[in-house]
Amino acid sequence: MIPDINSGGGLAAIGGFAYAAGGNEANIAPGLETDPQPEDPEFLVAGAIRWSWRSSRAISTRPLSIPDGACARRRWALRSLAVHPVIKDGTIGVAKVGWLGIVKTSPNIAAAHWFLNQYLDFAYQLSFSVNNGVVPVNKLAITKMGEDAVFAEMLQLDPKDIAKELRLDYSKANLSEWSDQWNRIVVRQ
Question: How far is CA 112 from CA 97, 99, 102, 108, 169, in A?
């Protein structure tokens, strides 16, 4: 399964493909050109539908470019494994990061600060991350998740491993062109 470019992990997957094949944010063609052209490709556009389909199969092996959340959330229901892709020597996996911030002109700065503090709190980060199969930003929550055998097996929870993940600079990417190139690949399938 490969995340569609319009899904949460699609951009990270395509960026990872590009870097692994010698490209970068400005040139994703190498990653798309090395596509192995599977006989029955699957593009992850509706995760719940795909996973229920997968669970009806006796044996199924598919690469999923973003293993963390997708596999960890379903680990209890399906027998699944996660392998973090080696992008290049010393770079393993692709970080999918987001940002939180407060708009300076917010009419209630105190409420915005309260929300951010609650979001970053150990209890919330642990609960959110466990329920979504993602790596928290709170360091204590990361340590606690590492005590769970499934998360320790499937997620990169060691700060040294997290630091080795590829971090894409989307300011260098022409996302419209990425979408056009991706759609041409999908049509070929």
Answer: 20, 14, 6, 7, 27
Classify 151 as helix, strand or coil: helix
Backbone angles phi, psi at 91, to 5 degrees: -120, 115
Domain boundaries, the chain: 1-95+166-189, 96-164
Contact 3, 10 (CB under 8 A): yes
Assessment of whether the complete model's pTM goes beyond 0.85: no
Q: Give dist(CA 93, CA 9) in Å, integer.
A: 12
Amino acid at 115: F
More confident residue, 23 or 151: 23
Contact 44, 7 (CB under 8 A): yes
Where residue 93 falls (left for φ over 0; alpha for ψ -120 to 50; beta otherwise) is left
Length of the chain: 189
pLDDT in tens, 23-35: 999 999 999 887 5
With contact defined as beta carbons under 8 Å apart, do 22 and 33 qualify?
A: no
